[in-house]
Design brief:
Blueprint (H helix, E strand, L loop, with lengths): L11 E3 L8 E5 L1 H14 L2 E5 L2 E5 L4 E2 L4 E5 L3 E5 L6 E2 L16 E4 L2 E3 L12 E12 L2 E6 L4 E12 L2 E6 L9 E6 L14 E6 L2 E3 L11 E4 L9 E7 L2 E3 L4 E6 L1 E7 L2 E3 L3 E6 L24 E7 L2 E3 L7 E4 L6 E7 L2 E3 L6 E4 L1 E7 L2 E3 L6 E4 L2 E6 L2 E5 L4 E4 L3 E6 L2 E4 L4 E3 L4 E6 L9 E3 L5 E2 L6
Parallel strand pairs: 1-3, 2-4, 3-6, 4-7, 5-8, 6-9, 7-10, 8-11, 9-11, 10-12, 11-13, 12-14, 13-15, 13-16, 14-17, 15-18, 16-19, 17-20, 18-21, 19-22, 20-23, 21-24, 22-25, 23-26, 24-27, 25-28, 26-29, 27-30, 28-31, 29-32, 30-33, 31-34, 32-35, 33-36, 34-37, 35-38, 36-39, 37-40, 39-41, 40-42
């Protein structure tokens, strides 16, 4: 729909026609909400926001089902009061599962969290218990403490070509906050039925600094931090995005099934991609549904693909990390065709994973181990090129059982291939370790042939 700057077509609610000033001074909360309410009364439709700066001094704005909000390219909706800027939840709403207000589309313009002037920790856009949320072709800027987009119990979400610019943390206690947060509907969510998020696409987005002096880049770009036994976020695709200067892992997937991270670029982030299952020691995250004591068990995850990404200048955290637990492994992991250079920590770390592949990756200038496998089994490390690793090229430890190491080329300060005596059922051949500190294989009864070059 091509909407003109002035004179919106019939059936489109123009916020200026309902009294919005758009001058950055007058309180436009009422006019914007009136447009949203008119669309609700119509059974759905479009809210048109012409160019200007719209001051929302009494947030939140509340959007309802079947609504499309279109901002002109030079339109800014600015948070000028404490509270989330826009949400799809009505006061007292109790709508479980995905029965809340959905089929909502936001596009264009700028959503300004104004975190330096209004520092109270809040999100900019928050959606819960919904089916069908799309945010595209917009800028979300200067978010104070919480999240640019919070998805709580949302199915079929699309975050497309969005620029996430700037984060503020007045209290200094939000060092792991995410620009895009996935959450389950736990206690305090309005309908606490532990519904996870599913079917999410994050594509073509960028995460970095804001032009506002005093704002800073995001700690994390996308992630979550909590879980419930037997529930996991799932079917998540992160495609063609750019992550810059995140102070923690750019992607932190806590209790996510069926995850694809493909064709992204990571630059100067503390860590790249982190996939973790919930440990049995996490009391909050292992309590049974409906309350009670901790379950005392980890939750297994499966089907993780990290492929075709470029990670440069990452900090002390692994560029790619996949961490399960003995009682809750991560199964069917594929880390292939990635390029890692200049990382300060381990290049690729797999802990308690099963039936996993690390194949055809290029790692240069790694500050720790190139590839490290800890525990788990049914693993293959093949065809990787590792150069300039400051520790081991390839390392296996912590009772890894069933590992094939073939066809890798390694240049490292310490042993090119190091396998501890706790590991069993190692198969190795065809590795070129001549640029490294040699071969250190202490595993029990390895299966080898003369193909390794040392």
């Amino acid at each position: 729909m091509a909407l003109p700057e002035e004179g919106a077509p019939a059936g489109v609610r123009d916020v200026r026609a309902l009294g919005a000033a758009g001058d950055g001074r007058a309180d436009d909360t009422g006019a914007l909400q009136a447009a949203l309410d008119r669309v609700r009364e119509d059974g759905g439709g479009v809210v048109w926001v012409p160019g200007g700066t719209y001051s929302v001094q009494a947030p939140p704005l509340r959007v309802h089902a079947n609504t499309r909000i279109v901002l002109a390219p030079n339109a800014v909706v600015r948070r000028d009061g404490e509270g989330t800027l826009l949400t799809n939840r009505d006061p007292g709403q109790e709508l479980p599962g995905h029965t809340g207000h959905g089929r909502i589309l936001l596009e264009g313009g700028v959503w300004d969290g104004n975190g330096l002037r209004i520092p109270a920790h809040d999100s900019v856009l928050a959606f819960g218990h919904a089916l069908g949320i799309t945010v595209r072709d917009t800028v979300i800027r200067d978010v104070p403490g919480h999240h640019a987009v919070e998805l709580n119990a949302v199915r079929c979400a699309r975050i497309l070509d969005v620029r996430f610019e700037g984060f503020t943390d007045s209290g200094g206690d939000r060092s792991l906050s995410e620009a895009v947060r996935l959450d389950m509907a736990g206690p305090g969510s309005g309908s606490p039925d532990t519904t996870p998020c599913s079917d999410l696409v994050l594509s073509g987005c960028s995460f970095g600094a804001s032009p506002t002096p005093g704002s800073r880049p995001w700690p994390r770009a996308i992630g979550s931090r909590g879980a419930t036994p037997g529930r996991a976020h799932g079917d998540i695709r992160i495609l063609g995005c750019h992550f810059e200067s995140c102070s923690a892992e750019a992607v932190h997937a806590c209790a996510w099934d069926r995850l694809t991270v493909q064709g992204n670029t990571f630059h100067d982030c503390a860590g790249g991609v982190s996939v973790v299952s919930v440990a049995d020691t996490e009391r909050v995250d292992t309590g049974p549904q409906g309350g009670g004591g901790p379950a005392g068990a980890s939750q297994a995850l499966a089907d993780v693909v990290v492929t075709g990404n470029v990670l440069t200048g990452t900090g002390g955290l692994p560029a790619v990390r996949c961490t399960g637990h003995p009682g809750g492994p991560v199964r069917n992991v594929s880390v292939t065709g990635n390029t890692v250079s200049g990382t300060g920590g381990t290049g690729i770390l797999l802990e308690s994973t099963e039936d996993s592949v690390v194949d055809a990756n290029v790692l240069r200038g790694v500050g720790g181990n190139g590839v490290h496998v800890r525990g788990g089994g049914g693993l293959r490390v093949s065809g990787n090129r590792i150069s300039g690793a400051c520790a081991y090229g390839i390392r296996a430890s912590a009772r890894t059982n069933g590992l094939s190491v073939t066809g890798n080329g390694v240049d490292s300060r310490d042993s090119g291939l190091s396998v501890t005596g706790t590991c069993r059922n190692l198969v190795r051949h065809g590795n070129d370790l001549r640029g490294s500190g040699g071969l250190d294989d202490a595993s029990l009864e390895p299966v080898t042939d003369p193909g390794d070059l040392v």
